[in-house]
Design a protein that fits this description.
497 residues; alpha/beta; 20 helices; 12% strand; globular; disordered N terminus; disordered C terminus
Length: 497
């Protein structure tokens, strides 16, 4: 055969072979999403939820909650700094017993970036402090995710109906951090309850990855991978796809606890539980799986950027039920201590110095961010208002001038919970160092930060916890004091005692 014809044949066959390979890839490479399995019969107090984890509580009279906000790797590093600080800080109480603050934590709630730190601590416990920096915080997770999304080998999967960009993200997170672990693995440990949340795209309400919520869906949470929960909680709309779970609600004879039904079934719920009652009605919508067979989840920050909404619902619901004279799971608690770890930034925009308006992309990003930031502020202030209200009501009730026998109507109003509530906010805004505050506020919401940025976030967290006026009030009221705060051997160098 002449050389020219041979060369022509090669050129023709090459594109044909590439086309054939592409067709085979498309036909054989489609992926299906993991399916959360159903439960056929609801059994109360089973699986991974607070009622089954309460046995691990260090002190039943104290409820210590950490709420980790969203904010990408910035939030993950900042919340990790709080864990480090609580781990290194030893307290001596009235009985002269020493204990680490971290060992007193009962619940960690996280959304978006904060969900990674929460889930990783629930999985690894003490090992977290040896591995988390290298496995996640100081790793270019964002770059690895982009690389996977641009890899042609995965394009066929992305073209399928049941597989989106967030499923790819879950694979990256699993390889980097979670190693195939599921919620069943969390349930085997003795650490705090971990609750991470995503946002139901249809209703805008939050959905927490705990069995008591999955009971409403008539689904078993135990086999769900932690990486998939983290992917749902951090699925930034548009940039990442939603994570889809199957809803079997209404098929397992689910029944809400009696004290919860008091709020959910009330046409006029007692104040201040109206918001909590609305939340319960939102959950009831999942019981109609014929109408809602699939739930699509996006970033938890859309509905609750601080991971604080669930805490507020519980606290307000408890206050309302207490006013009715009924018991709740919190009836024996004397102190509720909440660390609000807020990695929300307030960058200094220069738009107002120019007549030219911001570009389309800047406008879209800011338009979506402003409501989230303002809602976060409102949630913190709401919690602080509850703290102040409970304090005031108890002072009135316990004052010598107040007599329970004088006015029954007044007695009902002053029926304050016998619980001391502490809201310890850990946020950039409270940093006294202006230069450091501006530096942290300039950090992007991404999953790739410099080693220096990670270390400075950790240092800031330690400073803010130890200098918090509310934290000092807690120590004073409890008759406790810090006896030791160990600095890390290779940790942040800017940390102050």
């Amino acid at each position: 055969m002449p050389a020219a014809k041979v060369e022509h044949k090669i050129h023709v066959c090459r594109p044909l072979s590439l086309l054939a390979a592409a067709i085979l890839l498309l036909l054989g490479g489609c992926a299906t999403r993991p399916i959360n399995p159903p439960i056929t019969q609801f059994v109360p107090d089973r699986g991974y939820q607070y009622s089954t984890r309460i046995r691990h509580s260090r002190d039943p009279q104290n409820l210590v909650i950490l709420a980790f906000s969203g904010g990408g790797m910035r939030a993950a590093a900042f919340s990790y700094g709080v864990l480090e600080t609580l781990r290194r800080t030893e307290i001596i109480g009235p009985s002269s017993t020493k204990f680490r603050l971290l060992d007193q934590v009962d619940i960690i709630m996280g959304v978006s970036g904060g969900s990674f730190t929460a889930l990783a601590y629930g999985l690894y416990g003490e090992r977290l402090f040896d591995e988390y920096e290298t496995r996640f915080l100081k790793r270019n997770v964002q770059g690895e995710l982009i690389q996977q999304l641009l890899n042609p080998a995965g394009w066929a999967n992305l073209a399928s109906d049941g597989w989106g960009r967030s499923e790819v993200a879950a694979q990256v997170y699993d390889e980097a951090l979670f190693g195939g672990a599921t919620f069943a693995d969390l349930d085997r440990g003795s650490g705090p309850m971990i609750s991470v949340a995503a946002t139901d795209l249809s209703t805008g309400s939050r959905l927490s990855f705990t069995q008591n919520i999955f009971d409403v869906l008539c689904s078993d949470l135990s086999s769900m991978r932690l990486s998939r929960a983290a992917a749902a909680s951090s699925a930034l709309p548009v940039i990442l796809s939603s994570v889809t779970i199957t809803n079997y609600g209404g098929t397992c004879n689910y029944r809400m606890p009696a004290w919860v039904r008091t709020l959910a079934e009330s046409s006029d719920p007692p104040r201040p539980a109206a918001r909590a009652a609305r939340r319960l009605k939102e959950l009831q919508s999942y019981e109609d799986s014929a109408r809602r067979p699939y739930i699509h989840l996006v970033d938890g920050a859309v509905s609750d950027n601080l991971g604080l909404r669930g805490v507020l619902d519980v606290v307000e619901g408890y206050e309302a039920i207490n006013a009715l004279g009924q018991r709740t799971p919190l009836s024996d608690v004397h102190r509720i201590i909440i660390f609000v770890v807020n990695a929300v930034t307030s960058p200094n925009f220069e738009w107002d110095q120019s007549e030219k308006p911001p570009g389309i992309l800047d406008t879209l990003i800011r338009a979506s961010g402003v409501p989230i930031d303002r809602y976060s502020f409102e949630a913190v202030e709401q919690l602080k208002d509850i703290v102040a209200r409970w304090q005031t009501l108890r002072r009135i009730r316990d004052s010598p001038a107040f007599s329970k026998g004088q006015d029954p109507a007044l007695v009902e109003v002053i029926n304050a919970p016998d619980v001391s509530l502490y809201a310890i906010e850990v946020s950039f805004a409270d940093l006294q160092d202006e230069a450091e505050r501006e530096y942290l506020n300039s950090l992007p919401t991404s999953f790739a930060l410099s080693d220096e940025a990670v270390d400075r976030l950790r240092a800031a967290a330690a400073t803010l916890v130890l200098e918090s006026p509310e934290f000092k009030r807690l120590l004073k009221d409890a008759g406790a004091s810090i006896v030791d705060h160990k600095l890390p051997a290779n940790g942040p160098t800017t940390e102050r005692n």
